Amino acid sequence: MSRIIAGAAGGSPLSSVPGSGTRPTTDRVKEALFSRLESYEILSGAYVLDLFAGSGSLGVESASRGAARVDLVELAEKAAAVCHRNAALVNKVLGREAVRVHRAKVETYLLRVPEALKWDLVFLDPPYTLDEEGLAGVLKTLESHLADGAVVVVERSTRSPEPSWPAGLERFSERVYGETTLWFAEPAGEPEEKDS
Q1: Measured in Å, how far apart are the chain's first and last C-alpha atoms?
Q2: What is the CATH number of the domain that holds 155?
Q3: 3-state secondary structure 24-86
Q4: Is 68 contained in some domain?
Q5: Please, is 192 exposed, middle or buried when counting C-beta atoms within 10 Å of its C-beta (0-12, 13-18, 19+)?
């Protein structure tokens, strides 16, 4: 069973998405990812966007660890219902609505969200059915919604190629954990402070 690893809601069990078509982030990958994000000192007070959220595991982990606001975006009805349950659990522990769930197509959500809303950390764990061109389109649309110093994390199968980054995003790192590859990117022109 998946759980929240650390922070205010650490140890709390998470509901999982039933059925196929999703690729849940394992606790091992999640631990490694958040250890790295903690080293970037990006989580405290951050605005976090979890696209193709699945169960919302990465977003609620961020809220537990001090993110100010988390938006979970998931289109599938069953997965969105799981997001609502996991968000409610963390919001109850925190005593505020830190996590919001949006049942929407990712591309539509990004086009409708106010231009003034900027995120410090974005997770993308797209389903197998999203091809490389579709992912490139999402990344392009995302560009204008990133805060200065933002970090974008794309989670893909190790069999998938590196994402096609738009001109406004630059990859600064990648990590492989078994069958999972994490790609890390930041707005183009950001100072090189993170590891490579």
Answers
A1: 33
A2: 3.40.50.150
A3: CCCHHHHHHHHHHHHHHCCCCCCEEEEECCCCCHHHHHHHHCCCCEEEEECCCHHHHHHHHHH
A4: yes
A5: exposed
Instruction: Return d(Cα 151, Cα 84) in angstroms, integer.
Output: 25
Name the nearest CA neighbour of 37 among 165, 163, 180, 173.
173
| pLDDT per 10-residue tile (average), the chain, 196 residues | 85 77 74 95 97 96 98 96 96 96 97 95 91 94 95 94 95 94 91 55
pLDDT of residue 196: 46
Tokens of 156: 């893909």
Buried-exposed string 32-48: b where 16+ CB fall within 10 A, e elsewhere:
ebbebbeeeebbeebbb
Q: Is 90 a domain residue? A: yes
Residue 133, token pair as written in the block: 């061109």
Answer whether residue 13 is part of any domain: no
Is residue 130 classed exposed, middle or buried when 0-12, 13-18 and 19+ CB atoms within 10 A define those classes? middle
| Side chain identity, residue 55 | S
Among all chains, which residue has been given the structure tokens 């790609």? 183
Pairwise CA distance, residues 187 & 196, whole Å: 15
Residue in this structure with the two tokens 């699945």, named with its chain if needed: 54
Q: How many domains does the chain have?
A: 1
- Identify the domain containing residue 31 by its residue range: 27-187
Residue 120: what residue type?
D
Is 3 inside a domain boundary? Answer: no
